[in-house]
Amino acid sequence: YGAKIRAPHALVMTFLFKSGSLREKLRSIAQATYTHSRNLAYFVFTYKGLIAAQSGLQGKKIPFHSFLAACIGGWLVFGENNPINSQIIMYLLSRILFALARLAVDRGYISQPRQDPFPLLAALVWGTVLWLFEYHQETLQPSLQSSMTYLYQDSEVWHDLSDFLIYNKRTDSK
Predict the structure, then answer these.
(1) Could you read off the pLDDT of 140-169 as tens digits, one per residue?
(2) Do 8 and 62 belong to one domain?
(3) Strands (DSSP E) along the chain, which ranges?
(4) Tell me, what DSSP letter sits at residue 161?
(5) Which of 30, 39, 120, 160 has the maximum number of C-beta atoms within 10 A of its C-beta?
(6) What is the 3-state secondary structure (H, E, C) of 90-155?
(7) How do the residues of the chain divide into helix, strand and coil, expressed in percent and rounded to 5?
(8) Are residues 65 and 19 in the same domain?
C-alpha cells in the first residue's frame, strides 16, 4: 500500500521540483517509496501486535487499546522528524480535525451549523497559507514551499508555453 501511494507522488514531485541526474532522481523516488512502505508496514505490525497483546492480557479488546497501541507505534515508527513522516503526519492531522468536528456534531458537543462551514474554512486556510508564504515562508514545509514558489513566484517569468507544460525555473532573464 505504501508503494502504491508514495511512488506516483514521489515521481511527480521529484521531476517537478528536484534537480540532479536521472539516476539521482530515480534513487530519490525509490528511497521515498521504500521509506514510506517500510514505515507503514512497521506501524501496522506494531499496532496489530500491541492490540493482540493487550486483548490477550485483558481478555477482550477495549477502545483504549487502539489509542495506546497507535500512540506507541506512532512514537516508535513515525517519531523521527523527516520529510516522509512529516507528510504522513500532516495528512493524518487534516483528516483527524475534520473527523473530530463531525464527531463533535454527532455527539451534540457543538450544534450542527446552519450553513456549510466549508467555504469559511477554505477562505481561512488559503488566507493563512498565503500570508505565511509571503511573510514567513521558512515556517512552511519544504514541499509546500516548492509548490507555492512554482505557482506564485516562478510563474511571474515565462518564455513560452513549455514553461507551463514542463517546468518554469525562475530566472532573472527576460
Answers:
(1) 988 889 889 888 887 777 777 766 666 556
(2) yes
(3) none
(4) T
(5) 39
(6) HHHHHHHHHHHHHHHHHCCCCCCCCCCCHHHHHHHHHHHHHHHHHHCHHHCCHHHHHHHHHHHCHH
(7) 75, 0, 25
(8) yes
